[in-house]
Amino acid sequence: MDRLAKVFTQQDELIAPVAAYQNEYEAIKALHSLPGEKRQHFQELTLKLLDDLEQPHIRESCAERSRQWREQGNLLFRSSSKDLGSDADAERVLGACRLYTKAVLAAEDAESELCLAFANRGMALQEYGYYQEAYDDCANALDCGYPVKLQHKVIFRQAHCAWKLKRIEQLAEHILCLEKLELNESFRQQLEDLKRSLELLQSQSSNDKSVNDQEKTGPIHEIVTESGSRGRYMIAKEAIPQGKIIFREQATCFVPLEQRLICQQCAASLLCAPIPCPQCRQRVVYCSRQCRERHKPIHKFECAAYRKDLLKMVGVSHLALRMVLSYMPSMLPKLQECPDSSEMWATITTLAKGADNENEPTPQYLQSLRMISHLDKAPQAELVYHMLCANLLQLYLKDCTNFFDQFQAMTAPIEDWHLFLAALILRSAGQLLVNGHVGDALLPVDLEASEFGLLQPEMWLKPRHLKLGQMHNLSQTEPLTAINLPYLSLCNHACAPSIRTKFDGCTAVCQSAVELEAGEEIFNCYTMDYKRSMIRQRSQPLQQVYKFDCSCEKCTRSDPDQDYLKFHRYRCENPNCLQEFVPKPLPHQTNLNWWMHPPDATVASVCCPVCKETQAFSWYNDFLCLIDCCGEAKARRALYKAFDGLDKWLLEHHILKGKLAEMIIEACFAEMDEGCVLDDVDYENLMRIIGTQLEGTAAHSGGTSMEYLSQMTYLWDLWALSKCKRSDQQQQEMRGKLEYLAGEQREIFENYYNDFIVQQ
Fold first, then answer.
1. In the chain, is it the N or the C terminus that has fewer CB atoms within a 10 Å radius of its CB?
2. Cis before 541? omega within 30
3. Residue 689 is assigned to a structural domain of this protein
4. Model pLDDT for residues 366-377, shown as the tens digit of each residue
5. Whether the predicted model's global pTM rises above the 0.90 cut
6. What is the number of domains present in the chain?
7. Which domain holds residue 691?
């Protein structure tokens, strides 16, 4: 990042002063129109940066690291379950899968080791029960040059997995291949067994009826988009009840956030057998061979950038680049006859201003072109940064890929395509600044960025089935993707949104958060909502990023902060006062959230506005001391009593009460994970505290929010452990919450419910 900042600073000096902004095309044209020496120096700085980002790569070192991980996996996989205990066999196999995965990633492009790592992981995955992933790994091993004399073993594994998956055609192909090989008697017998299995599958298949149950995409309820003085917006064409799905939108473009390894094609976040690009220095993975194949048209132009670790430096421009790569095939027929870049830009501008066809769905590239941008209102430093990012990515495509080869036969000169592409990247970046979304998911708690959720042996009983008492360890909410959703972006902002968006991989599912009347506008919330922020907190980003002042009903009422402040109500500690009050918020609100600041930070005190006495909050420090001693039964009893005493000072659903409940719950469950035995008194108190926490979260964030679903995992563990009573209604109500989870997490919750809760 320092190198990028240094280069951008030098380039900024070369282009200063920047002319008044007209549009993205003219902004990039100004860079391409610099005087000769300046332009040459400007481009040389970019090219040198791209060269400097190339990282040293020693294939032999990769092979050695991979071999070491594989050998560790072999030792664990071959160890007898008697050595580990009769209940540890699944942990042994999954632990080996985890080590083999490290071997797969470490090998990078050292195919002699990569093929062995894939083959061994496929063997372990097959034994554990991940048959599709094992099948893919066998194919990967063969593709990478697995030794010919041993290939029959890999093909047998593929055939076995195809049988388990009931893939008749694949099983028949593998049997045909094996029949052509010279096999010993043992393998011949296995082949005969496979033939009998194939015959059985074929007889079963003739009696089965295939059912095509494709999930609908697009609008579910009648909605309509209209244009007006506020731009385009979305309204309900018919009445929509609360909690119903309004529409689904599958994104063509997203990019992973930070360094978390998720599938680059479908955004799957819980992986058991990640398939890496061997050229990308362990920075790109896929959940399957199918996803890897589907993503090739995009990744072939990003691979070198990942190898240089360039894309994390350019922020939102990475997603802008991916939009251009994804949508260019759709735009190209409309641009191929344009004589120059000016005409190409005019064509794009015309498309962006066009109206939707009511009789057919609007392609996502057109929806994206029609998204608004506020680059014209951006500060000059911000505008220049995005201009330089767009120029950098255009030069990357020109010098490090063959992307521009596709334009050689077009009418416009190739130099015009360079200019046009940079302008298009800049336009997309500007649109994403005000229209981009962030997708999230539940992941294992404290999972390292280089680890994978389904490969943690201490958590899993069998594929996608958690061990008893492990649900709470799948409760960390984490932002995973920056995602382009042009249809969702049609919704205007309100601080009290009328929709709740669930992210399921790269699909957004929007459900009604309230009852909607026919003709009522559908609103999204672009920042923190009115219950989780004061008006001055949310007004600043709305003005800085989205360039407007909110005029929703929550912001224009006489007391716009009343819903937020009701979660900050105290009773005065002065025995002669004992009045209920809300502290008067200070500019930086340090007095409202005083407990969130470090002990050595200067924090404004909380004073009762009636008696003017400063609140000591001695009970808070006593509470923290008890938390530190949570492993002792006596301290836990005192802790439960202290929590009950909070009601005297923290009124209703005070935000601090929820935080302290979270501290108790997490501390007690951490002790349980370490082997501490709790008794019935502990469980009864934990059940009550979790109930209080969930009530507060429902009031503050909603009963279907990710915060609520995360906290619900602790309740499910207590139910599964048979440590607390619940009614059938409570049980069904909690199960109903699962529809608000992404598919891969919902499957795990359903399995846990069926394995340990419904059976009781």
1. N
2. no
3. yes
4. 999 999 999 999
5. yes
6. 2
7. 616-725
